[in-house]
Amino acid sequence: MIEFIWFTVFVTLLTGYAVLDGFDLGVGMLHLFSKKDEERRVMLNAIGPVWDGNEVWLVTAGGALFAGFPPIYATICSAFYLLVMVLLGGLIFRAVAIEFRSKQPSLIWRWSWDILFSLGSFLIAFGLGLVMGNLIRGIPLDAEGEFSGTLGSLFHPYALLMGVLTVALFSMHGGIYILMKTEGELHDKLRGWINPLIIFFIMVDAIATVATLIYQPHMAQSIQYRPIFFLVALINMFAIANIPREISKGRDGRAFISSCVNVICLLALYGIGTYPNVVRAINDPEGLSLTIYNSASSTKTLEILLLIAIIGVPLVISYTIAVYWIFKGKVKLESTSY
Amino acid sequence: MNVEILARLQFAFTIMFHYIYPPLSIGLGLMLVIMEGLYIKTKDRTYLQMAKFWTKVFALTFALGVATGIVMEFEFGTNWSTYSRYVGDVFGSALAAEGVFAFFLESGFLAIVLFGWNRVSAKFHYFSTWMVALGAHFSAIWIIVANSWMQTPAGYHVVGEGIHARAEITDFWAMVFNPSSMDRLTHSVIGCWLAGAFLVISVASYYLLKKRHLEFSKRSLKIGLVVASIAVFLQAVSGHSSAQGVAKNQPAKLAAFEGLYRSEKEAPLRLFGIPDSKNEKINYSLEIPGALSLLVGGEVKGLEHVPKQDWPKVEAVFQTYHLMIYMWACMAILCVWSLIAWRRGTLFENRLLLKCLVASAFFPQIANQAGWVSAEMGRYPWIVQDLLRISEGLSKAVTANQVLGSMIMFGVVYFALFVLFIYLLNEKFQHGPEDGEEASPYHHIKEIL
Fold it and tell me: How confident is the model at residue B290 (pLDDT cuts 50, 70, 90)?
């Protein structure tokens, strides 16, 4: 039971990351599409005060995985060695690009950091999708829970599709966020980008859903056993359908909330579909998979961790809300801006 | 080269590079609290100017600290997955606590400190500065607790056998307050304060030499000097306490620190020497007879108690440990000299002193790095003292080429980052603090296409 609760905490942290840093990554990927320096600065400063705190959700999710399910953390990090390195590279470049870009006026300087910022954001989004795709599909494991496959097998078409899905999801999410945070000429321009982003996401999402149902039938089993979860899929569909509706009515805030619900539902479906496996062994799903039960830390540790979460998470949520409240409204460039 | 050497090298390289930045964040965090506190109290705009200037430097070090820190978190899993499985139950808890209690606090309030000058009241801004400094200190607590557990494990038991063996927590607080954690935490945090204080001192002295921003620099120098002097004194106390702890809990490490091959009742304190482990003696030794026994109390165990193949690399541990102490001595001498000059009223005129103070920013950095190297190398061959060997902690599925590849990537990226960091820091220092209400220096550039 406590394993299940701690797994829920982990998925919640991951979802917090996807909802919050998801739009940072989206803004990053869209960054190069605006050509004027001032517009780029506005976009950058729309995420300026919050991106760093958003990234902490990933750091904490990593810590939660390490603490709660050490064998899973160990297997994921060493199996996806190259992907983790690419992800880390992306995170490094994004962080320093945001900090460095506006510190020098030179064209080459700013363009270089802009490219790294965008590329970093893309690599993080695509890399995370790729890891998730592999976790859904499963990877070959040996009896000690170590990865026994080849590097090439991680770039299976299904995993690549999940990478594209993540990129599409975050681009749309970021697009809506930036729409909400801007005004004037830039805002009108962004409004023109939003529909293609939505259409692209819906197409990829449809393909991914079909592919999952056909090629990864185990993902649908949980819902077959517990039909109540079908509600999540239903809410997800309505949330997606609601996005273009709100956009066309000019209610960007509501569109953003729908987009958040969409991200939450997708992560929930991932959690529901893979449960109780976290790392599915493709060579022997029943025998070798790392589940939240065979890979958990001791009950005592999980209880301590839960206590930490009960004390800490409300604090975290309260100052996250405070920061978003203080920086609410449209972005204005100030002397302290990036 | 084999995986073990490469993985150890990679860890050493990435952690040492990371450890340039958090000490600056922690130290500058403290300085920001003092500077802004003085502003709130006196309403003197020079202090506000100071706080704003150092906030920007803080932001730069923080960004690099975050970027390089996230690498560390995942490196445990990528290169040391057997270790991660073994200690996750204990070590992971501390790491998770760090994320929840420290990082969120620091990054959340940093947004307000950096961008909130005109959005929140002065008091709330000051409160945010406190929270950022507190968050920075919290981050030190949990990671050092985790690391100290590897030095002096407590509050755990080992379950399972062979490849399934792992350490589990039996007593959380015994794990947190393991025998070395408080000593090592105090010692590291004071080291961080020194890093922050001497950076402020160094930059202020530079301006004084160049006769720029005089009012700003004089006050900065005084604040830095007060903090540095207190910290230098405290560091001696904490160092003494740490050494006593090491003597008790990790005698092999102390023996390596001091180059003690045989147990001695009246062990000398070595000021200088070149250890020769092959012949088990110290060449060119300069020592105070009996002083080590006096300091740590009674007989000091030598390396003879440990099988020779399990000896730490005495040559390296001895020298890095002594380098740390030399650096402390440099800082202590500079503090005393400056305080005398201050009393005589020549602090701002003595050019030789000011030149030494400009160089002083490096002393705590070197001391921090060297101290950690000796603390970690002194634990060899154990990754968790007496429980798990370094060679047993590696990832089995990872090949030497993978580690080498990622090592090259980090090498190239970190080198570039370091050059850029120094370049931007220098730009910031050359530009100096803003006088009055500043405009962004780049506001005139509207378009780049």
Answer: confident
Is B92's Cβ below 8 Å from some Cβ in A? Answer: yes
- Where do we find the tokens 């800490």? A312
What is the number of other CB atoms lying within 10 angstroms of the CB of residue A33?
A: 14
Question: DSSP characters for A12-58?
Answer: HHHHHHHHHHHHHHHHHHHGGG--SHHHHHHHHHHHTTTHHHHHHHH
In single-letter form, the type of residue at position B69 comes to G
Amino acid identity of residue A77, one-letter, is: C
Tell if the CB–CB gap between A98 and B63 is shorter than 8 Å: yes
Number of separate helices (H) and strands (E) present in chain B:
16, 6
- Measure B398 CA to nearest chain A CA, in Å: 6
B397 touches A: beta carbon within 8 Å: yes
- Reading the block at residue A254, the tokens are 């509501």
CB-based contact, A310 to chain B, within 8 Å:
no
- ipTM value greater than 0.85: yes
- How far is the C-alpha of B103 from the C-alpha of A54, rounded, in Å? 10
Q: Give A127 or B277, the one with higher predicted confidence.
A: A127
Element (H, E) at A215: helix A184-215
Q: Looking at chain A from residue 311 to 330, which residues have their Cβ under 8 Å from any Cβ of chain B?
A: 312-313, 315-316, 319-320, 322-323, 326-327
In degrees rounded to 5, what are phi and psi of residue B378? -70, -15
Our CA-based measurement puts residue B51 at a distance from the nearest CA of chain A, in whole angstroms, of 13
**In a mutagenesis test of the A interface, which of B70, B109, B139, B149 is the best target, namely the one with the most A β-carbons within 10 Å?**
B70
- pTM equals 0.92
- Give A148's contacts in chain B (Cβ within 8 Å): 397
Task: Assign B434 to helix, strand or coil.
Answer: coil
Phi, psi (rounded to 5 degrees) for A293: -90, -40
DSSP state of B92: I
Distance CA B50, CA B219 (A): 9
Distance CA B303, CA B321 (A): 16
Question: Contact at 8 Å (CB) between B154 and B131?
Answer: no
pLDDT band of residue B436 (cuts 50, 70, 90) is low
Nearest-Cα residue of chain B relative to residue A75: B81
Per-position b or e across A41-70, b if 16+ CB within 10 A of its CB: bbbbbbbbbbbbbbbbbbbbbbbbbbbbbb
Residue pair A29/A167 in contact by the 8 Å Cβ criterion: yes
Assess contact for A125 and A91: CB atoms under 8 A.
Answer: no
Mean pLDDT score, A198-227: 93
Cβ within 8 Å, pair B74-A62 = yes
